[in-house]
Amino acid sequence: MAAKPAAAKKGAATPVVPNSVSLMEAGKGSTRVKTRLIVLYGGPKVQKTGSCSTIKGAKWIVSDPNTIPTLDALDRLPPDKDIYEVTSLKETRAVILKMLEVCEKNGPEALGCTAVIKDSATQLVDWHQQDVARETNQRFMGDVKNNNGWQQFNAEFSAFIDDLGLLSKYITVIVICHAKEKMDLSKGDWAGLNLPPQMALKMGRTANWVLYQSKRSYTAGEKDKPDEYVRLSEPDQNGVRKAVEVVIHTETNGLWLAAANGRNLKAEEPGDMAALLRKEGLLE
Question: Could you give the CA distance from residue 178 to residue 44 in angstroms, rounded to a whole number?
């Protein structure tokens, strides 16, 4: 008679995942458990750049003409060494690929920053459409029916999104994007990102978090107090105070899609990306 297996000791922990027996060499794990690719999008002037400016020690890849003036007005302008101004998709990819090379050869610490912020992807769309139209001898994209340039545009912009995903293996990457003023679900416009439909879909699919930011202004009542969401102005000559509420949505809000696979995030967070990342243990 076969011997009965020994009874497990009372209170002994059962391994969640048993060690496997494999002829494959051991994997090396992933650094992505402490990094994310994040898309933060919203309408114009909802303080997206301001929300990201709370992250100290970040490197900024700047294409939007409002980025530097906004950071300067907030007294959060990073040092020159952390600002990379670009004027095309090609320049942007060159900066990202150089960052990726540094990380691959020397580790993410060699990059010397806490995060990489791209502001904004929307501006790159405008520039790259102009560049592709010029390269394909058109006045604008779609000007020539049999050579509209969209295949080239999608291939090159898609490669830019892939670059972002690769870099985010080593360090958190935040991409600021604008929202479409009108959504058209029948055309596949995804999540309200103001990108061509195929690129909006890929950006959303590639990102770990898609966050929607909203801003609401109203006249403050006597009992209204400032908090982490709301800022109050000084009373005007009539004693009226203006309240401004900025919210980062981590879950879908109305038609605006948002999703973030976090352990500690609420559906609505204040407009402070540094606080949000610290809440998830992604920033010290």
Answer: 7
